[in-house]
Amino acid sequence: MRIAWLDVFFGISGDMTLGALVDAGVEPERLVAELSKLKVGGWQLQFEPVIVHALGATRATVTRPHQHHHDAGHHHDGDHQHHDIDDHHHDKSHHHDVDYHHHDQCHHPHDDHQHQHRVDEDHHEHDSENHHSHADTHNHDHDHNHNGGGFHHHHEHGMTPGELVQIIRTSDLEESVKSRSVAVIDRLAQVEARAHRVSVDEVHFHELGGLDTIIDVVGAVVGLDLLGVEELYCSPIPVGHGFVDTAHGRLPVPVPAVVGLLEGLPTVPLQVEGETVTPTGAAIAAVLATEFGPMPAMTVTSSGFGAGQKDFPEGANLLRIIVGDKVETQQHAADIQGDRQVLLEANIDDMSPELHGAAMEAVFCAGAVDCWFTPIFMKKNRPAVKLSALAPPQTADAVADAILRNTTSFGIRRTIVGRHCLEREIVQVQTAYGQVSVKLGTRDGELLTAAPEFDDCRRIAQQHQVSVREVYQAAQAEASRLTVPD
Fold it and tell me: What is the extent of the structural domain holding 361?
């Protein structure tokens, strides 16, 4: 099984994640080809090799090339955008400079254009003290400019989480990419709303911030898939200290949204004054990583560094990703036996069945690994359903909140359960109808089950005007001939 470990030894942001993925082997062209399936235009994604504290890395930059405001003060660290809630007090000057050009929501490396973002009438000031040089960079940019597609009508106050989710939902991306991306956006919006005591609908992402939030989040999910990563692990998250100056006063580091995202996750102190973990970076780690701790046992196949923006004297402002094939150990086997999940259940007897599907979708978006309905009879012999959801501990609260918000239930039962899982691997098999993705389930090197990807089978069946069952059986037959590598 292909796994990856995020080595967050200094910080993490959305564009640092993209840079690390490309540095580890993701082809920029393939990544951008997938991102172009989003029905939104007017963005540019660039990758450039840089040197940070004598270490080679890749820097990713998301810009809107045709929207340049010469406002000398918008500097974002990686994606250190703080999403505004009407009178949102986050300092948007959270940036990682590495003596290079501005990242994420900032300008192209070879011009001085700044992107100024407003939320309603609330204008966020940013310091403009960063002067970057390209002395240590290698100017081999991968520029990708997309100006087609829908969703060009970005409001002056920025996009809401609902608008970002709509862009993802209506895209041509794979369903698994959509669901994981939406889960990250939802989690980000929830903590922002809670931090500022407003509803999720009142959270606004800046004009460029909305775009690069989508590019960063979807790009991270797609990049992991392009590397073949099935499980993502993450180190404890380092947290700096100090304050950030905003137009409304000083805020402590870490800012409230980051603190909310790190609830339930291990952190370590970082003796750096300033912010090195952004909300988007924290959300990517919190939602996509299945486990936090030291580097897991693996046979390393590749690694890469993603560069931040600010040059800290205390150390290299980089994010590292290490990719490899999982190595079975006795400890890992014990971990599988003791895989802990939270089972959340609610009995529902007064909700229209038409709403069941929407409730299930919301539960999955909140971070559940499984969700199902069971017919039951309640008191007074009323026919009803039991909604059950399985979630890892770090997303259990969000899943519980999704159940309460999207059903008529007044309460939820919560139980810690263990589960036994087969080792899983995604392979491609060639059938008479075309190539199909198949999920293999193995134990102790023995192939026990093979499940063709239904979406692949349906698409190919439509192309060849045959039944889905024929394609499915053909894929299963090819998968049964596979041998499990030692």
Answer: 337-419
Least confidently predicted of 82-91, 123-132, 198-207, 315-324: 123-132
Specify which residues 252 forms β-bridges with.
243
Question: Residue 379: what pLDDT?
Answer: 86
In this structure, are 175 and 282 located in the same domain? Answer: yes
Q: Which of 270, 299, 326 is where one domain is finished? A: 326
3-state secondary structure of 390: strand
| Tokens at 114, concatenated | 């700044």
The rounded distance, in Å, linking the Cα atoms of 171 and 189 is 20
Residues 96, 202 within the same domain: yes
Return the structure tokens found at 282: 């924290």
Does residue 250 share a domain with residue 163? Answer: yes
Give me the pLDDT at residue 131, please.
32
**DSSP string for residues in 329-386:** -HHHHHHHHTEEEEEEEEEESSS-GGGHHHHHHHHHHTT-SEEEEEEEE-GGG-EEEE
Compute the average pLDDT of residues 426-452. Answer: 90
Rounded to whole angstroms, how far apart are CA atoms 402 and 406? 6
Asked which of 12-21, 180-189, 333-342 is least confident by mean pLDDT, the reply is 333-342
Does 363 lie in the same domain as 306? Answer: no
Q: Are residues 210 and 284 in the same domain?
A: yes
Q: Long-range contacts of range 32-36, CB-CB < 8 Å, 24 or more positions apart?
A: 32/142, 32/144, 32/146, 34/173, 34/177, 34/218, 34/222, 34/226, 35/146, 35/215, 35/218, 35/219, 35/222, 36/146, 36/149
